[in-house]
Amino acid sequence: MNKFSIGVDLGGTNLRIAAVDEQGKLVEKVTLGTKVSLGRDHVIGDMCDAIQRTSEKFRDTPLLGIGIGVPGIIDMQTGLLRESPNLPGWADYPVRAEIERRLKTIVILENDANVAALGEKWLGAAKDFSDMAMLTLGTGVGGGLVLGGAIWRGANGMAGEFGHTTVEPEGQLCGCGNRGCLEQYASATAVVRMAREAIASNGGPALARAANSDPEFSSKSIYNLAVQGDEDARRIFRYVGRCLGIVLSAMVNSLNLPIYVIGGGASSAWEAFSPSIFEELRRRSFVYAATAPHDPMATNEGASARLEAGPGRKTIITRALLGSDAGLYGAARLPMIAEARR
User: Fold this and answer.
1) What is the number of alpha carbons within 13 Å of residue 38 lying toward its C-beta?
2) Is the pTM of this model over 0.85?
3) DSSP string, 35-93
4) Phi and psi of 120, rounded to 5°?
5) What is the pLDDT of residue 85?
6) 3 state DSSP class of 158
7) What does the alpha-carbon distance between residue 266 and residue 185 come to, in Å, rounded to a whole number?
8) How high is the pLDDT of residue 299?
9) What is the model's pLDDT at position 42?
10) CA dist., res. 25 & res. 21, Å (int)
11) Three-state SS for 281?
12) Which domains does the chain have, with CATH numbers?
């Protein structure tokens, strides 16, 4: 490879580091646990050690820099992590300056959902499009916008917080202080909460058996029941799809982008919730109703959804293709973009 960069996905549970070349080939990947309880200096130390070990393997190849996806609000000018719910004790921490001090190379910080969107734009489901939006379904619900091929951050670096769009005005209290946010109805955490609510309200026998027998009762367990035909589990995912459809309808009407990508770990339940997404979109978005593909599910097959430009262009809602590596690819892409602009 001619040049490479290192992408980092810094999560509250896992810390992942990858070396990626300019063609998008992932040539090395390391996964560590994020030992948040030991403090930010320890986590930064683990990260920098892993980056140094990885870059040392390719010491004869020019390193373009380090891109890091971080969950939370970042001040792009100063490199401060203003706030991160998954990294307690990191508020107003100068993450970029500390890593640059240790590694003595260029470091670019970015919100984790933004880099996931950039990864899907570069190599994934949206690679044929210059404009796209992404929703990431995980512990919470994140979002990212790429316009004209570049991440759109907004006036304060906080654009794309689709997970905090209201879907139930008097609904579940959210950590952001609002009620009824999408995050409370479409995240992996929300799926488990709704399953436990179903057990408490009507017994939900299959859900109850799964919860009692599985100490790690998760959204995946509930999805497996839905696939097996359990109506209580299926009802939960229909509701997930309905809530996603409500938010996507507003996004389609407001942004009129060609493609909207849904990723994150909970997107593995796509088959269970996506039919409800398309039902809601047709009901609630006149823009989508006018531009919907004949078979919206068919756009999720293959490497990408290719569309002809012009007045007949369709609106694509599709599942992400890069899985958990989207953020790594997107983070690694950041120094490459910076290099091209110099």
Assistant:
1) 10
2) yes
3) -GGG-HHHHHHHHHHHHHHHHHTTTTS-EEEEEEEESSEEETTTTEEEE-TTSTT-TTB
4) -70, -30
5) 76
6) coil
7) 12
8) 61
9) 92
10) 5
11) helix
12) 4-118+325-341 (3.30.420.40), 128-321 (3.30.420.40)
